[in-house]
Amino acid sequence: MILKFALLTQVIAKPWVLIAMPILSRWVFLIGVKSFPYVREQGLGKGFNNAVVWPIFIIEGIVILSLIGVLAGLTGFLPVLGTILFTILFCHRVSNLLGGLTGDIYGATIEMSEVLFLLIASVTL
Questions:
Q1: At 86, which helix (H) or strand (E)?
Q2: How far from each other are the two terminal CA atoms of the chain, in whole angstroms?
Q3: C-alpha distances in angstroms, 51 versus 9, 47, 61, 109, 111?
Q4: Which of 45, 2, 11 is nearest to 118 (CA)?
Q5: 25 closest CA partner among 43, 7, 9, 37
Q6: Residue 101 dihedral angles phi and psi, to the nearest 5°
Q7: Using CA atoms, how far apart are residues 71 and 57, in angstroms rounded to an integer?
């Protein structure tokens, strides 16, 4: 939380970051939801796993990336690419360790992707 707060103070002059960060983090965690198995038979995260469908996920991604492109230009895609790559690697690693993902991992993915997005944006922009 302290790191997130410190990074927010670094990017406060870039309002597009404050808009894109929560939107992107909630979209990229869906990569883990659809690409990796849910490890439990039941749980709060199981609803996400059952509800997300690929066509809607892809349309959401196009809209989000278009929004970031309009607000930030091409430089805004570096934090996006870093966040997507991190999410894939993190979910892959955890899935290998646990045999799948859980709702807690979904939440952790959101929080870590927000911090990573802020970190990359504060360094590169």
A1: helix 77-98
A2: 22
A3: 35, 6, 16, 18, 21
A4: 11
A5: 7
A6: -115, 165
A7: 21
Q: Which of 95, 118, 120, 119 is nearest to 106 (CA)?
A: 95
Looking at residue 83, what is its pLDDT?
Answer: 93
Q: In what helix (H) or strand (E) does residue 34 lie, and over which residues does it extend?
A: helix 15-35
Return d(Cα 91, Cα 27) in angstroms, integer. 14
Instruction: Tell how far CA 74 is from the center of its chain.
Output: 19
Residues (pLDDT < 50) of the chain are none
pTM of the predicted protein model: 0.86
Partners of residue 38 on adjacent β-strands = 101
Q: Which two structure tokens, joined as six digits, stand for 51?
A: 């509800």
C-alpha dihedral (53, 55, 20, 96), degrees to nearest 10: 50
